[in-house]
């Protein structure tokens, strides 16, 4: 797994790539929480995720819970088919705000 | 590392030392040295010159008759000495006397002079011991060894305030000593020695031996001079073996140098070194020098071995510490193993054991502890609760959340028979205290064993399967998110009747099991598996399915849990 963070449209966008399992998810979790901890509205770009397991999903859930606590926006964008299947099976697709791309996320003023 | 060759360039004076600063040689002795080097002088004339200085004559005869020269017949006169010894040996003898007496009674304390000459004698006898292998005369080698470091004595003579450093200088090896000299004097003894050789008009062979006993030997040097320079280089290290602190290192370097310069190895090298210790007393006596008690080579080597033993001791200590650390690691690993085994035992105790309820489960953790669990227990009105769950992640933290969820389910289920209400309560309990985003996917419900009717709820879990009589499977997919994600989640209940067929609930470790081809078992595979074992009794069927799953699983990377709920027959 690898990740990159960019500031776009008023969000910190965490671009995740590869497989996010219990060994890789701490890194993804750190990146997401770091953005939120710095007070950024955060998007997690997931178009390059080939596999995500429950510990990876837990990192996203933690991001969601943290954003709610801090009154920050948190959304998943460009979710890959593999990741979307996992989210749909667990009915988490209705829990997260999901946008098709970063450009589709409402701009933060 | 080799040092740059000393230069004779007068434009590069010895850091302020002028030739006129250097000590003047004893006039009579140096006159003999020069005369001996004159090819035109005859023996009679030389004898007369020596006899004109009775003190020098007496000293020459004493030394010539000493064991140092080992002459068979006694030398009784200067003329006799010239005949017996020859011009060169006589010159060397006179030179030794000249050097010995050059700095007497001056600025340097007598005991410091003695210390220098003791070292110089050691170099001299070392050099003489090498004479046969270098194919050189013994007196030539002896003299070269005696005077090769004379420049250091001159440096101390010029800088008497540095005399207290003498101990440090002798405790080092030749290379370190040269570096220390640079720090103390801004120059080195070989450079001073070269300057002195010019002023004192020393024979070229000896001047070259002084010049090149540290510096790289010049190409094209007279072969005999080159051999003498090698002798002095080796002699420096051989003598250091008796004085330097780090004897083991000096011993190793000396042996390497003897092998490189003269192919001396093994016993031959040891024999040469042993002679140094054996002959120094004799040489000191011959030259009238005072030296202390001398160690034998054995004693020196014992010292070196002692150092080796100390290092071995420290190595043994390291080994011992490593063994202790490994033992501690093993002890802690065993303790952890015991604790995990106990935890597993407790976790297994949370699983139901009563097969009479019509619910059969099996759980195989990927590691010691499982993040999966299943449960079945009687509730109000004779109804039976059943559930399967999977905590996000694996390991100890998942097991702890599993225990919490299992306890909550068991406790709440005793009083609540509405699965949707129970799941909503469970969800609220877990979501109110989120831990690292962990959540629990759970599918479960309640059924009446008499009628087989029941209600099932699925919170973010994989679809429950019901094997229907006509050979098809009904699926009960998730009707809400996993427990613990968000407070306020609601879950839609699904009715079912066990008379239509048994329910199979499972965790993702089962469906993600891969066939040898790499293909995942998936839900279709599990459905086929369920149908293929329908005729077996429930308990055996579950075990057979698990055996098949484990057989086709290439790598065990997740917990495996299966739960079979079926209508009770005949009880």
Short description:
The complex is a heterodimer of chains A (109) and B (571). Helices cover 36% and strands 33% of the residues of chain A.
Name the CATH class of chain A: Alpha Beta
Main sheet record of chain B: 5 strands, antiparallel
Distance between the termini of chain B: 96 Å
The CATH topology of the largest domain in chain B comes to: Phosphatase 2c, domain 1
CATH C-level of the largest domain in chain B: Alpha Beta
Rough outline of chain A: globular
Envelope shape of chain B: rod-shaped
| CATH level-four homologous superfamily name of chain A | STAS domain
Instruction: Summarize the amount of helix of chain B as a percent range.
Output: 40-55%
| Tally of individual helices of chain A | 3
How would you classify the helix and strand content of chain B by structural class? alpha+beta
Q: What is the structural class of chain A?
A: alpha/beta
Largest interface (CB within 8 Å) is between:
A-B, 19 and 26 residues
User: What is the CATH architecture assignment of the largest domain in chain B?
Assistant: 4-Layer Sandwich
**Total helix count of chain B?**
21
Which strand order does the major sheet of chain A show?
A: 1-2-3-4-5
Head-to-tail CA distance between termini of chain A: 32 Å
Briefly note the CATH topology name of chain A: Transcription Regulator spoIIAA
């Amino acid at each position: 797994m690898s990740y990159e963070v960019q500031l776009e449209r008023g969000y910190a966008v965490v671009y995740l790539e590869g497989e996010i399992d219990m060994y890789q998810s701490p890194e993804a979790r750190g990146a997401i929480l770091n953005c939120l901890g710095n007070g950024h509205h955060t998007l997690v770009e997931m178009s390059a995720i080939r596999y995500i397991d429950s510990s990876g999903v837990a990192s996203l859930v933690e991001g969601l819970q943290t954003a709610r606590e801090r009154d920050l926006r948190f959304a998943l964008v460009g979710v890959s088919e593999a990741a979307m299947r996992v989210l749909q099976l667990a009915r988490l697709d209705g829990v997260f705000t999901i946008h098709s791309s970063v450009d589709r996320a409402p701009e933060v003023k | 590392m080799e040092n740059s060759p000393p230069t004779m360039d007068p434009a590069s004076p010895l850091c302020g030392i002028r030739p006129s600063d250097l000590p003047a040689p004893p006039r009579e002795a140096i006159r003999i040295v020069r005369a001996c080097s004159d090819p035109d002088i005859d023996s009679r004339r030389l004898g007369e010159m020596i006899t004109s200085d009775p003190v020098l004559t007496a000293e020459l005869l004493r030394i010539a008759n000493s064991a140092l020269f080992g002459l068979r017949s006694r030398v009784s006169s200067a003329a006799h000495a010239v005949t017996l010894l020859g011009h060169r040996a006589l010159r060397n003898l006179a030179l030794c006397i000249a050097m010995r007496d050059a700095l007497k009674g001056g600025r340097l304390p007598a005991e410091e002079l003695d210390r220098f000459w003791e070292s110089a004698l050691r170099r001299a006898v070392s050099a003489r011991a090498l004479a046969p292998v270098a194919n050189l005369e013994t007196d030539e080698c002896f003299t070269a060894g005696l005077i090769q470091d004379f420049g250091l004595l001159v440096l101390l003579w010029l800088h008497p305030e540095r005399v207290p450093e003498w101990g440090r200088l002798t405790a080092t090896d030749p290379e370190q000593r040269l570096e220390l000299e640079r720090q103390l004097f801004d120059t080195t003894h070989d450079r001073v020695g070269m300057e002195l050789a010019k002023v004192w008009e020393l024979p070229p062979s000896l001047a070259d031996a002084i010049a090149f006993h540290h510096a790289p030997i010049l190409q094209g040097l007279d072969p005999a001079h080159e051999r003498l320079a090698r002798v002095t280089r080796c002699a420096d290290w051989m003598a250091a073996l008796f004085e330097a602190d780090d004897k083991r290192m000096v011993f190793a370097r000396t042996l390497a140098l003897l092998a490189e310069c003269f192919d001396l190895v093994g016993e031959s090298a040891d024999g040469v070194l042993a002679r140094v210790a054996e002959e120094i007393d004799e040489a000191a006596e011959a030259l009238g020098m005072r030296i202390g008690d001398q160690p034998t080579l054995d004693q020196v080597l014992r010292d070196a071995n002692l150092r080796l033993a100390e290092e071995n001791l420290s190595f043994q200590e390291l080994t011992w510490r490593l063994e202790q650390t490994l033992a501690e690691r093993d002890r802690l690993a065993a303790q952890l193993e015991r604790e995990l085994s106990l935890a597993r035992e407790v976790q297994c105790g949370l699983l139901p054991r009563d097969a009479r309820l019509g619910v059969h489960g099996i759980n195989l953790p990927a590691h010691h502890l499982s993040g999966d669990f299943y449960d079945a227990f009687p509730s109000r009105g004779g109804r039976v609760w059943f559930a399967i769950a999977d905590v996000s992640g694996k390991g100890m933290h998942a097991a702890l959340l599993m225990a919490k969820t299992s306890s909550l389910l068991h406790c709440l289920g005793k009083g609540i028979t509405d699965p949707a209400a129970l799941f909503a309560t469970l969800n609220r309990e877990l979501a109110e205290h989120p831990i690292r985003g962990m959540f629990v996917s759970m599918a479960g419900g309640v059924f009446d064993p008499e009628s087989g009717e029941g209600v099932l709820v699925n919170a973010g879990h994989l679809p429950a399967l019901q094997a229907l009589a006509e050979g098809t499977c009904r699926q009960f997919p998730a009707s809400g998110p996993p427990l613990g994600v968000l407070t306020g989640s609601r879950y839609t209940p699904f009715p079912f009747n066990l008379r239509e067929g048994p329910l199979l609930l499972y965790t993702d470790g089962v469906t993600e099991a891969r066939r040898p081809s790499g293909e995942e078992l998936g839900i279709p595979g599990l459905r086929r598996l369920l149908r293929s074992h329908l005729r077996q009794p429930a308990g055996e069927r579950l075990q057979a399915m698990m055996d098949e799953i484990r057989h086709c699983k290439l790598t065990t990377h997740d917990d495996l849990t299966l739960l079979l709920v079926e209508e009770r027959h005949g009880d």
